[in-house]
Amino acid sequence: MTVSADQRIIGCLMAAVGLLVTLLCTLHGSANSVTPEFQCDFDEDMDPFCGFRQSTDDNFNWTRNNGSTPSRDTGPQHDHTTGAGYYIFIEASMKGPGYKASMISPSFISLNIPRCLRFAYHMYGRTVGTLQISSQNEGNSTRSKVMWSLTGDQGDQWHVASQTVPAETTRFVIEGVRGSGALGDIAVDDITLTPGYCGSDIRDGHYNDQLSM
Ligand SMILES: *[C@@H]1O[C@H](CO)[C@@H](O)[C@H](O)[C@H]1NC(C)=O
Ligand SMILES: *[C@@H]1O[C@H](CO)[C@@H](O)[C@H](O)[C@H]1NC(C)=O
Ligand SMILES: *[C@@H]1O[C@H](CO)[C@@H](O)[C@H](O)[C@H]1NC(C)=O
């Protein structure tokens, strides 16, 4: 039996596609193979804030919510995880400019290696203020250090950010600062903490890989 040149080319193409798919699956698999030591999608009614607590050293609180926020032209329409779950947000209505709401993470033991903090954020509205994440070392009474910060309207969509957390960190703080007006809801969802550096983020300072949903 003879095999035509066409059949041979098709065979080669199929083999090449198969190899590419295998390679992509392997890469994808290894990127997700490290199990997070902390994970919070705010979807558990039994543990709605995953051990985060509201700071008393601020002006108002983060709120857990599903669906859209009460105000139009600001805030998400749904959560980031499934579109049907919960997220946390700061409601900008009826607050003064610069008003802050802080949530403190549970404490975790400091490792001798950094960790990667990943989270989804939604910052939509004409007068969106600032979202910032700080690290703290509870054994060190010096004030917390801002690791990541973003100000202003980022469009009506969820973004994913990752930030390498220094090894000495024992907890982190998520702070929302209200902007100049009521169109400034800021939401956060899907927080994970994984041992090791974040992918390409091996430098200090700000890094956010903005992957839209
Ligand atoms: C914020 O939450 C804390 C802890 O649950 C509570 O004690 C405090 O009254 C709340 N503040 C406001 C303004 O609702
Ligand atoms: C929000 O959650 C409540 C309680 O689980 C549910 O009844 C409601 O339909 C949800 N709303 C939206 C918009 O997802
Ligand atoms: C405490 O924090 C300060 C400022 O970030 C830093 O310079 C110092 O090394 C820290 N000390 C310890 C014991 O971690």
From TrEMBL:
<dbReference type="InterPro" id="IPR000998">
    <property type="entry name" value="MAM_dom"/>
</dbReference>
<dbReference type="InterPro" id="IPR013320">
    <property type="entry name" value="ConA-like_dom_sf"/>
</dbReference>
<dbReference type="GO" id="GO:0016020">
    <property type="term" value="C:membrane"/>
</dbReference>
<protein>
    <submittedName>
        <fullName>MAM domain-containing glycosylphosphatidylinositol anchor protein 1-like</fullName>
    </submittedName>
</protein>
<feature type="signal peptide">
    <location>
        <begin position="1"/>
        <end position="31"/>
    </location>
</feature>
<feature type="domain" description="MAM">
    <location>
        <begin position="38"/>
        <end position="200"/>
    </location>
</feature>
<keyword id="KW-0732">Signal</keyword>
<dbReference type="Pfam" id="PF00629">
    <property type="entry name" value="MAM"/>
</dbReference>
<dbReference type="InterPro" id="IPR051560">
    <property type="entry name" value="MAM_domain-containing"/>
</dbReference>
